Amino acid sequence: MELLNGLNPEQRQAVTLPHQSALILAGAGSGKTRVLTTRIAYLISTGQVSPHSILAVTFTNKAAKEMLTRLSAILPINTRGLWIGTFHGLCNRMLRAHYREANLPQTFQILDSGDQLSAIKRLMKAMNVDDEKYPPREMQNFISGSKEQGLRAHEVEAYDPYTRRKVEVFAEYDAQCQREGVVDFSELLLRSYELLSRNAAIREHYQERFRHILVDEFQDTNKLQYQWLKLLAGRHSALF
Protein backbone atom coordinates (compact mmCIF):
# COMPACT_ATOMS: atom_id res chain seq x y z
CA MET A 1 0.00 0.00 0.00
CA GLU A 2 1.47 3.30 -1.16
CA LEU A 3 0.62 5.34 1.94
CA LEU A 4 2.77 2.98 4.04
CA ASN A 5 5.85 3.74 1.96
CA GLY A 6 8.57 5.47 3.94
CA LEU A 7 7.45 4.10 7.30
CA ASN A 8 9.88 2.04 9.35
CA PRO A 9 8.72 -1.39 10.66
CA GLU A 10 7.60 -0.02 14.05
CA GLN A 11 5.65 2.84 12.46
CA ARG A 12 4.06 0.46 9.95
CA GLN A 13 3.02 -1.89 12.76
CA ALA A 14 1.37 1.00 14.66
CA VAL A 15 -0.44 2.29 11.57
CA THR A 16 -1.86 -1.13 10.62
CA LEU A 17 -2.99 -2.28 14.07
CA PRO A 18 -6.40 -4.02 14.11
CA HIS A 19 -9.42 -2.39 15.79
CA GLN A 20 -8.07 -2.16 19.33
CA SER A 21 -6.87 0.38 21.86
CA ALA A 22 -3.12 0.99 21.89
CA LEU A 23 -0.57 3.25 23.57
CA ILE A 24 2.30 4.21 21.27
CA LEU A 25 5.51 5.12 23.10
CA ALA A 26 7.98 7.16 21.06
CA GLY A 27 10.50 9.92 21.64
CA ALA A 28 10.51 13.46 20.32
CA GLY A 29 11.03 13.72 16.57
CA SER A 30 10.20 10.06 15.95
CA GLY A 31 7.21 10.83 13.73
CA LYS A 32 4.30 10.35 16.16
CA THR A 33 2.05 12.88 14.43
CA ARG A 34 2.87 11.38 11.04
CA VAL A 35 2.00 7.90 12.33
CA LEU A 36 -1.28 9.15 13.78
CA THR A 37 -2.21 10.90 10.52
CA THR A 38 -1.25 7.87 8.43
CA ARG A 39 -3.28 5.65 10.79
CA ILE A 40 -6.36 7.77 10.03
CA ALA A 41 -5.70 7.58 6.29
CA TYR A 42 -5.15 3.81 6.52
CA LEU A 43 -8.42 3.21 8.40
CA ILE A 44 -10.38 5.27 5.87
CA SER A 45 -8.69 4.01 2.69
CA THR A 46 -9.09 0.34 3.70
CA GLY A 47 -12.80 0.88 4.34
CA GLN A 48 -12.57 0.01 8.03
CA VAL A 49 -14.25 3.22 9.11
CA SER A 50 -16.10 6.25 7.77
CA PRO A 51 -14.18 9.55 7.98
CA HIS A 52 -16.97 10.85 10.22
CA SER A 53 -16.46 8.04 12.75
CA ILE A 54 -13.00 9.30 13.66
CA LEU A 55 -12.11 11.77 16.41
CA ALA A 56 -8.51 13.01 16.47
CA VAL A 57 -7.27 15.36 19.19
CA THR A 58 -4.12 17.46 19.25
CA PHE A 59 -2.79 20.09 21.64
CA THR A 60 -2.06 22.90 19.19
CA ASN A 61 -3.85 24.47 16.23
CA LYS A 62 -0.62 24.07 14.27
CA ALA A 63 -0.61 20.29 14.77
CA ALA A 64 -4.30 20.03 13.89
CA LYS A 65 -3.79 22.03 10.70
CA GLU A 66 -0.77 19.88 9.80
CA MET A 67 -2.83 16.70 10.21
CA LEU A 68 -5.65 18.02 8.03
CA THR A 69 -3.20 19.18 5.36
CA ARG A 70 -1.48 15.78 5.30
CA LEU A 71 -4.80 13.95 5.10
CA SER A 72 -5.93 16.14 2.19
CA ALA A 73 -2.71 15.27 0.37
CA ILE A 74 -3.10 11.52 1.00
CA LEU A 75 -6.84 11.01 0.52
CA PRO A 76 -9.38 12.40 -1.97
CA ILE A 77 -11.77 13.55 0.78
CA ASN A 78 -13.10 16.86 2.04
CA THR A 79 -11.57 17.30 5.50
CA ARG A 80 -13.74 20.28 6.49
CA GLY A 81 -16.31 18.26 8.42
CA LEU A 82 -13.89 15.93 10.17
CA TRP A 83 -13.61 15.95 13.96
CA ILE A 84 -9.90 16.72 14.04
CA GLY A 85 -8.67 19.55 16.23
CA THR A 86 -7.54 20.71 19.64
CA PHE A 87 -9.38 19.82 22.85
CA HIS A 88 -10.70 23.39 23.04
CA GLY A 89 -11.69 23.49 19.38
CA LEU A 90 -13.59 20.20 19.52
CA CYS A 91 -15.31 21.10 22.80
CA ASN A 92 -16.35 24.44 21.30
CA ARG A 93 -17.84 22.59 18.33
CA MET A 94 -19.72 20.20 20.62
CA LEU A 95 -21.11 23.03 22.76
CA ARG A 96 -22.23 24.98 19.67
CA ALA A 97 -24.18 21.91 18.55
CA HIS A 98 -25.80 21.41 21.97
CA TYR A 99 -25.85 24.93 23.41
CA ARG A 100 -29.34 24.54 24.92
CA GLU A 101 -28.46 21.36 26.79
CA ALA A 102 -25.22 23.01 27.93
CA ASN A 103 -27.20 26.01 29.26
CA LEU A 104 -25.42 28.48 26.98
CA PRO A 105 -26.67 31.15 24.58
CA GLN A 106 -26.39 30.16 20.91
CA THR A 107 -23.91 32.96 20.25
CA PHE A 108 -21.72 32.48 23.34
CA GLN A 109 -18.34 34.17 23.13
CA ILE A 110 -14.95 32.73 24.12
CA LEU A 111 -12.62 34.62 26.44
CA ASP A 112 -8.94 34.27 25.65
CA SER A 113 -6.42 34.43 28.49
CA GLY A 114 -6.17 38.22 28.35
CA ASP A 115 -9.95 38.70 28.28
CA GLN A 116 -10.30 36.34 31.23
CA LEU A 117 -7.73 38.25 33.27
CA SER A 118 -9.51 41.54 32.53
CA ALA A 119 -12.85 40.05 33.60
CA ILE A 120 -11.31 38.82 36.86
CA LYS A 121 -9.77 42.23 37.59
CA ARG A 122 -13.11 43.93 36.95
CA LEU A 123 -14.90 41.49 39.23
CA MET A 124 -12.33 41.75 42.03
CA LYS A 125 -12.67 45.53 41.98
CA ALA A 126 -16.46 45.25 42.24
CA MET A 127 -16.09 42.79 45.15
CA ASN A 128 -13.50 44.98 46.92
CA VAL A 129 -10.92 42.20 46.83
CA ASP A 130 -7.37 43.34 47.67
CA ASP A 131 -5.35 42.74 44.49
CA GLU A 132 -2.08 42.79 46.42
CA LYS A 133 -3.20 40.03 48.76
CA TYR A 134 -4.91 38.24 45.86
CA PRO A 135 -2.96 38.99 42.66
CA PRO A 136 -5.36 38.72 39.68
CA ARG A 137 -3.05 36.40 37.73
CA GLU A 138 -2.85 34.03 40.70
CA MET A 139 -6.64 34.15 40.93
CA GLN A 140 -6.83 33.31 37.23
CA ASN A 141 -4.52 30.32 37.73
CA PHE A 142 -6.60 29.18 40.72
CA ILE A 143 -9.84 29.29 38.72
CA SER A 144 -8.42 27.63 35.61
CA GLY A 145 -6.51 25.05 37.65
CA SER A 146 -9.65 24.11 39.58
CA LYS A 147 -11.64 23.70 36.37
CA GLU A 148 -8.89 21.56 34.84
CA GLN A 149 -9.32 19.24 37.81
CA GLY A 150 -13.03 19.07 36.97
CA LEU A 151 -14.05 21.19 39.97
CA ARG A 152 -16.71 23.87 40.29
CA ALA A 153 -16.33 26.52 42.99
CA HIS A 154 -18.59 24.69 45.47
CA GLU A 155 -16.47 21.54 45.07
CA VAL A 156 -13.15 23.19 45.97
CA GLU A 157 -12.01 22.40 49.51
CA ALA A 158 -11.39 25.63 51.42
CA TYR A 159 -10.15 25.17 54.98
CA ASP A 160 -8.94 28.71 55.63
CA PRO A 161 -10.28 32.27 55.11
CA TYR A 162 -7.73 33.00 52.36
CA THR A 163 -8.86 30.07 50.20
CA ARG A 164 -12.53 30.68 51.00
CA ARG A 165 -12.20 34.20 49.61
CA LYS A 166 -10.68 32.82 46.40
CA VAL A 167 -13.57 30.36 46.12
CA GLU A 168 -16.04 33.25 46.53
CA VAL A 169 -14.38 35.08 43.63
CA PHE A 170 -14.39 31.85 41.58
CA ALA A 171 -18.14 31.37 42.19
CA GLU A 172 -18.97 34.98 41.33
CA TYR A 173 -16.72 34.84 38.25
CA ASP A 174 -18.63 31.81 36.96
CA ALA A 175 -21.95 33.57 37.63
CA GLN A 176 -20.71 36.68 35.82
CA CYS A 177 -19.63 34.63 32.79
CA GLN A 178 -23.01 32.89 32.69
CA ARG A 179 -24.84 36.24 32.80
CA GLU A 180 -22.67 37.66 30.02
CA GLY A 181 -22.79 34.55 27.83
CA VAL A 182 -19.03 34.01 27.76
CA VAL A 183 -16.77 31.02 28.46
CA ASP A 184 -13.03 30.80 29.03
CA PHE A 185 -10.81 28.03 27.65
CA SER A 186 -11.06 25.83 30.76
CA GLU A 187 -14.84 26.27 30.77
CA LEU A 188 -15.09 24.93 27.21
CA LEU A 189 -13.71 21.60 28.35
CA LEU A 190 -15.48 21.47 31.73
CA ARG A 191 -18.87 22.43 30.23
CA SER A 192 -18.41 19.86 27.47
CA TYR A 193 -17.48 17.19 30.04
CA GLU A 194 -20.55 18.04 32.14
CA LEU A 195 -22.74 17.91 29.02
CA LEU A 196 -21.56 14.38 28.23
CA SER A 197 -21.65 13.13 31.82
CA ARG A 198 -25.17 14.44 32.53
CA ASN A 199 -26.89 13.76 29.20
CA ALA A 200 -26.98 10.06 28.35
CA ALA A 201 -28.54 10.58 24.90
CA ILE A 202 -25.80 12.97 23.77
CA ARG A 203 -23.06 10.83 25.32
CA GLU A 204 -24.34 7.68 23.61
CA HIS A 205 -24.66 9.52 20.30
CA TYR A 206 -20.96 10.39 20.29
CA GLN A 207 -19.90 7.01 21.68
CA GLU A 208 -21.72 5.32 18.80
CA ARG A 209 -20.32 7.76 16.27
CA PHE A 210 -16.62 7.73 17.18
CA ARG A 211 -15.30 4.22 16.60
CA HIS A 212 -11.69 5.41 16.56
CA ILE A 213 -10.33 8.09 18.92
CA LEU A 214 -6.74 9.15 18.28
CA VAL A 215 -4.83 11.42 20.66
CA ASP A 216 -1.56 13.16 19.83
CA GLU A 217 0.81 13.65 22.82
CA PHE A 218 -1.47 11.65 25.12
CA GLN A 219 1.03 11.94 27.98
CA ASP A 220 0.29 15.68 28.19
CA THR A 221 -3.43 15.29 28.91
CA ASN A 222 -4.64 16.72 32.22
CA LYS A 223 -7.23 15.08 34.48
CA LEU A 224 -10.25 16.73 32.84
CA GLN A 225 -9.07 16.03 29.28
CA TYR A 226 -8.58 12.37 30.20
CA GLN A 227 -12.05 12.17 31.77
CA TRP A 228 -13.57 13.79 28.65
CA LEU A 229 -11.89 11.20 26.43
CA LYS A 230 -13.11 8.38 28.68
CA LEU A 231 -16.70 9.59 28.32
CA LEU A 232 -16.39 9.67 24.53
CA ALA A 233 -14.85 6.21 24.31
CA GLY A 234 -17.77 3.79 24.16
CA ARG A 235 -17.69 0.01 24.31
CA HIS A 236 -16.85 -0.22 20.61
CA SER A 237 -14.28 2.58 20.47
CA ALA A 238 -10.56 2.03 19.94
CA LEU A 239 -8.32 4.61 21.64
CA PHE A 240 -4.96 5.19 19.92
TrEMBL record:
The keyword Hydrolase applies. CDD domains: DEXQc_UvrD. Transmembrane segments: none annotated. GO terms for molecular function: 3'-5' DNA helicase activity; ATP binding; DNA binding; hydrolase activity. Keywords: ATP-binding, DNA-binding, Helicase, Hydrolase, Nucleotide-binding. Residues 5-240 form the UvrD-like helicase ATP-binding domain. One of its GO terms (cellular component) is DNA helicase complex. SUPFAM superfamilies: P-loop containing nucleoside triphosphate hydrolases. InterPro entries: DExx_box_DNA_helicase_dom_sf, DNA_helicase_UvrD/REP, P-loop_NTPase, UvrD-like_ATP-bd. ATP binds at A26, G27, A28, G29, S30, G31, K32, T33. Signal peptide: none annotated. GO terms for biological process: recombinational repair. This is DNA 3'-5' helicase II. It comes from Candidatus Gallionella acididurans.
